[in-house]
Amino acid sequence: MATAMELWELEKFLEKAIEECRKVINLSHRGLTIVTGRLAGAVCARNLLLNHNKLLVPPEEMCSLTNLTELILDNNMLTMIPSGIGQLSKLRVLSASHNPLVALPEDVANLSSLQCLWLSNCQLSSVPSSLGHLKSLQKLGLRSNELCRIPDELCNLPNLRWLSMDDNLIKDLPAGIGGWVELIYLSLNSNRFDEVPLALQNLPSLVSLHMRRNNINSLPDDTIVALSFLSYLDVRENGILKRPEEWKGLDFIVIGSEIDEES
């Protein structure tokens, strides 16, 4: 196991990064519990990697690094993201998965350039409705949280193409999901659905739908017809154990314990 970086080593590292105007500041896997204020001088940084440390509080100085396009905070012990993060107007990727965040600051919604947001396993019971302002967002990962519902405002993401909300407590979808006009991939495995929502027919670009490990016991004919445009519908590990004879040729529907080609 690598020895944790001492504070004097961190200071020296940051001093050199500032002097060389480095665009990538990689402080991952360093055993850090704090990051010193010298980070504020790394104004040339485009990518800041702080993942796999022991940070309880993220450095507020990172919010002044307005040239950042990527910020990685995964696998720490963070209970918050600083409210000033909304100042990072050039940020395209924000990843803070595997932290006990519990909640998000409202000004995450000010990240106007954000394309990818990863918040898996963060103990979130809700997400701010203001996330609906992230008009550039293309990929959103919210798996392994404690979400009971998807805010209606999240349907106002016209460029969203990939959405994973596996392993939550969701029972239904908001009425306005037709706003996800570019959505290609939707994963709702391990939730509380008792049916495949018919409203999914309103997603014109959807190709792949994953609903394993829910409480779905049947697929009515009208649902099958409505979703026949899909290339892949995975409803394994639900109550549908045997493929009906009338489903012959409907190979896009995967049921029962059929081999998981993606595992």
UniProtKB/TrEMBL annotation:
Query: Which Gene Ontology cellular-component terms appear in the entry?
Result: cytoplasm
Q: Which InterPro entries match?
A: Leu-rich_rpt (IPR001611), Leu-rich_rpt_typical-subtyp (IPR003591), LRR_dom_sf (IPR032675), LRR_domain-containing (IPR050216), LRR_R13L4/SHOC2-like (IPR055414)
Pfam families noted in UniProt: LRR_14
Record's keyword terms, sorted = Leucine-rich repeat, Repeat
SUPFAM superfamilies associated with the record: L domain-like (SSF52058)
Q: Where is the Disease resistance R13L4/SHOC-2-like LRR domain?
A: 60-166
Q: What's this protein's name?
A: Leucine-rich repeat protein soc-2 homolog
- Its source organism is Elysia marginata
